[in-house]
Structure formats: structure tokens, C-alpha cells
Amino acid sequence: MNQHLTTLFPNAISVAIKREDLIHPFISGNKFRKLKYNLLQAKTEYYETLLTFGGAFSNHVAAVAFAGKEKGFKTIGIIRGDELGSKISENPTLSFAQNCGMQLEFISREKYRLKSELSFLENLKQQFGDFYLIPEGGTNALAIKGCQEILTPGDAEFDYICCSIGTGGTISGIINSVLPHQKVLGFPALKGDFLKEEIRNFAQNENWELITEYHFGGYGKVNEALIEFINQFYKENQIPLDPIYTGKMVFGVIDLIQKNYFPAKSKILLIHTGGIQGIQGMNVKLRNKQLPTIDIYV
């Protein structure tokens, strides 16, 4: 569903947000899209176990854990940071995953960098037995297929489609499904534009651009301005935004509108990729730093 913002933007620009966060209470947004065909494939190939990777507050890990519980898979999460093993109870995301039945394995950041190497994966198979591998963030060809279903025929009215970027899977699916008159703008949550090559591995056309100025210092980094924006946006629209991905993207789009980046009368669609479960964990970090928290109750 698309929810139109009631804010009066300059130059007769209109903005709507596609509420992918409402697809499912626990497997929301792009995680639902990315897992859809992977779970079907795992069933087709008679796998009983899903194994994936993620960090301390990973939306993906939480989604795989719940999806596995719902669909009858055993799940294993390889978690970045061996120091987290003794802190599960302090971490809402990891506690949720464990309560869903996910087996958590904590490894050092050095080992975690090897997650794509065949020898490392073979060692995991020796340790855990056979499993269906879902990569960090969930991005693979089947995930792209799922993300190509985000846009619908009713979205043809929009000139710009905007979304946040983690591993590049969601935007790749969107790029492959937009119409010729539409342009896709991606807002990376990480520093730099190195994701261009990853996206080109899956994207089938060139009507897209990365906007790299709204990462707020890098992945998982926030400041008081972003928190204030998320809280104010919720008060005005009753739409919760996560601080890692969608919040930064929406902040960026509205800032670009104020800076006259978009032509007059542009129709802009923002893709809400979910991730609301991460707010609780982010608030723990913010309180520890004695910073304002995200005042959203979902």
C-alpha cells in the first residue's frame, strides 16, 4: 500500500511511501521479499536447515529466525563479534532470534570476513551438517526475483523511486522492474559508492543513481538530527522509520526536495524496507550514550 504524505512540498512535488513494513509483523519489508523464493527453493531441495550471517542488530537475522520457525526449518545464525556471546540477553534482536529457535554461533570479526570463502563454508558444513545458505543481508538471484515484485502497475504514476541500500539486492530488483520514464535513487547506509559494482551484477538497465551523502557517518551510525527527524516524521505521518536504512533515505529525499534537486511537479515514491525491530536495540545504544531516543511505539 502507498501512503501519501500530507506535507506541502515546494514546487508542487508530491511524495508517497510504500508501506512494505506492513507486509508481515516479523518478516517485514525487503526481508519478506528476499526470503520468499529462497524458502521455496530450500523446500524444493529438501533442506531442513537454513544458515545465514549477520551483525548484532541484523534485521535479516531476526527475519530468518522467525521465517524458519514459521516454515519448519532449523536455523543457524553466524554472528559477527565473538564478544556478543555473553550478551544475548542485553540484545533485543539476538534474544528474539534465539527465542525463535535460532542457534547462534559467535565468531570474531576476522573470521567473519571469510564468510564467502569456500573453505570457510566447508568448515561450517562439517560443524553443522548440510544447510541451505542464505548470504548476509539475503541478497542473491532469488532475492532479486522477490524484490522485483515490490513495484506494482499502480506505481507507474511516479517519476522517482527511492530506497535505502544495504547489500544492493532490493534496489537491483526495483531497477529491473521500473518503467522507462522512471528513475531509481539509492541511498546507501554505508560510506562510499563501492556498491555500484554489486548492483551492476544484477541490474538490467541504467536508469539509476546512488546518493551517497546521507549515511550519517556509516552503517549503524546516527546523530541527534536524524533521531529528531524520525520522531517528528512519526508525529506528522504516523509512519515509523528505522534509523539504519529507511530513516536516512527519507531524510535525504526531503533534504533534496528543499535543495531543488527534483524538477517541479515530480511524483516521488519512497520504499519503506521495514527494519522497525532494530529500533529497540538502537535505543539501548542511545541510552548508554545518554542521547535522545526514538520515540516510536509499534
UniProtKB/TrEMBL annotation:
Species annotation: Flavobacterium ranwuense
Signal peptide feature range: none
InterPro entries: ACCD_DCysDesulf, TrpB-like_PALP, TrpB-like_PALP_sf
Pfam families: PALP
Record family assignment: Belongs to the ACC deaminase/D-cysteine desulfhydrase family.
Residue ranges annotated for the Tryptophan synthase beta chain-like PALP domain, each copy included: 14-274
Name this polypeptide is given: 1-aminocyclopropane-1-carboxylate deaminase/D-cysteine desulfhydrase
Coiled coil: none
